[in-house]
Every structure is written in C-alpha cells, then in structure tokens.
Amino acid sequence: MCTRRRSPCGGLPQNFWNISVYIADACSENFLVGGGEHDWAFLLTRLGWLKFDHVIARDAWFLGVLVYIVAIGPADSSRSPTDRRRRLIQADTVAA
C-alpha cells in the first residue's frame, strides 16, 4: 500500500489529496501559508480559472485516488502469498 515506507507510489496520492484542500480554498483564502498571497488563488486568477477552484480540487483529489489504485493494483497481487505459492507450484510442475 502507499502508506508503507517502500511504497510503489511514494507519497504522490497523499500529495494530490492534500493539495486538493488548498485548491478548493482559492476563492475564500482561509489558508494562507507564509503570510503572503494564496498561491492557488494567484495561479487560478492568472489563468482565469478561479471560478473553477472546486472542480479543479475535486479532479486533483480524484487523480490521487487513481494514482493510488494503479500503484497498489499490481503490487498487491504480485506480493500476495497465494500468488507466490501458485507460481512456485507452476514452476515445479513445468520442471518435472
């Protein structure tokens, strides 16, 4: 899973989930980091996308979910003890 130290996806999904909260705050600017201008408010205003801050935040959160699913999908099946045993049995029957 992505919470382990040697995760296949690192902290990328968590970063998307965390940043989605900050993007959603672009209009209200409740979270000011470092006391300056809200980064996402500045970026989205420059791009003309400030009115879509909640849509962009939702998409960032969903992208984190997709990264998480893709990263743990193959890792989860390839590391299960049942699959490992099945591969060993198949290797033994082929060799015999």
Helix and strand topology:
Layout: H1 12-24, H2 39-47, H3 53-78, H4 81-95
Helix pairs in contact: 1-3
Helix fraction, binned, reads: 55-70%
The overall number of domains is 1
Strand content: under 5%
Please state the average pLDDT score.
81
> How many strand elements?
0
Main beta sheet strand tally, sense and closure: none
The helix-and-strand class reads mainly alpha
Question: Would you list the SSEs in sequence order as H and E?
Answer: HHHH
Continuous helix count:
4
Q: How does the overall form come out from the CA principal axes?
A: rod-shaped
| Cα distance spanning the termini | 36 Å
Low-confidence stretches: none
Tell me the Rg in angstroms: 21 Å
Report on the structure:
It is a single chain. The protein is an all-alpha fold. The protein has one domain (12-95). The protein contains 4 helices and no strands. It has helices spanning 12-24, 39-47, 53-78, 81-95. The model has no long low-confidence stretch (mean pLDDT 81).
